[in-house]
Specification:
Layout (H helix, E strand, L loop, with lengths): L1 H21 L5 H18 L2 E6 L12 E4 L6 H8 L3 E5 L8 H7 L3 E3 L4 H16 L4 E3 L17 H9 L3 E9 L18 H10 L3 E7 L10 H18 L2
Parallel strand pairs: 1-7, 2-5, 2-6, 3-4, 3-5
Antiparallel strand pairs: 6-7
Helix pairs in contact: 1-2, 1-4, 2-3, 5-6, 6-8
């Protein structure tokens, strides 16, 4: 376990090197590849493999879209980054997490105080700016994490960006499972009063696991309000999770 912690420390140091030294010198495609590789390497270090069901076109020419998923763990953004480099929306508290908060800032994460209307408006504008730069944006509309047994209510704020910019939405359904028995694994669940370091320790001590990701076909926002789009995508995520139980 001590060796794993040393390797993880190296992974965090590498993240700072990539984000603050290497990336400013790279073109956009190379930046995306560097972040995707680091995310995959870090998950591998933690004993987590990614299994994708469906297809996602991760080319930069098709990046202007919104990815949304059910939320279980602080690992979820790493999982999604292995599929496509994305700019994430996260709660304000993440910016204060040790080490991870600095990495998130380096990844241009948009932090939002969900109790503040002005913060929500700023989030929408930041996401719109990213779409106009042909970037992929991603978030977790539940607004909190769960154990993964069921999907919480999808809040509609994030979907306002898709409706206003007519960008396609892709629904991702995540579930952490035992690679042998296929039973759901709860070690990654970041719920209750558990802190980040405690959760990290729990994941490091856990046996290897697989996270299955079901990818939907692109969903067009045409004809939807942000609320009807949120409801439709929530139903899609729920039905996809049923397929991997």
């Amino acid at each position: 376990m001590f060796i794993t912690y040393l390797r993880l420390l190296y992974a965090f140091i590498k993240a700072f090197w990539i984000l603050f030294v290497q990336i400013p010198r790279l073109d956009r495609a190379s930046q995306s590849l560097a972040i995707q590789k680091w995310s995959a390497d870090t998950l591998k270090l933690l004993g987590i493999s990614v299994e994708v069901i469906g297809n996602i076109d991760a080319s930069t020419s098709n990046a202007s879209r919104l990815l949304v998923a059910n939320h279980i763990s602080w690992l979820d953004p790493l999982v999604i980054q292995t599929l496509q480099h994305s700019i994430f929306v996260a709660k304000q508290e993440v910016s204060r997490w040790p080490v991870v908060g600095h990495i998130a800032k380096g990844c241009d994460v948009v932090f939002v105080n969900r109790g503040s209307p002005s913060s929500a408006r700023k989030m929408v504008q930041s996401m719109t700016d990213a779409l106009q730069r042909n970037m992929c944006i991603a978030g977790f509309p539940e607004g909190t994490s769960t154990e993964g047994h069921q999907v919480g209510l999808f809040h509609s704020n994030l979907f306002e960006v898709a409706v206003a910019n007519a960008c396609e939405v892709i629904a991702l359904s995540l579930r952490y499972k035992d690679p042998e028995t296929q039973a759901m694994r709860l070690e990654p669940a970041f719920v209750g009063d558990i802190g980040f370091l405690q959760s990290l320790h729990r994941v490091i001590c856990a046996p290897p696991m697989v996270v299955q990701v079901v990818v939907s076909e692109p969903i067009a926002p045409h004809g939807h309000t942000r609320r009807t789009l949120a409801q439709m995508v929530q139903s899609k995520v729920e039905s996809q999770l049923q397929s991997i139980q």
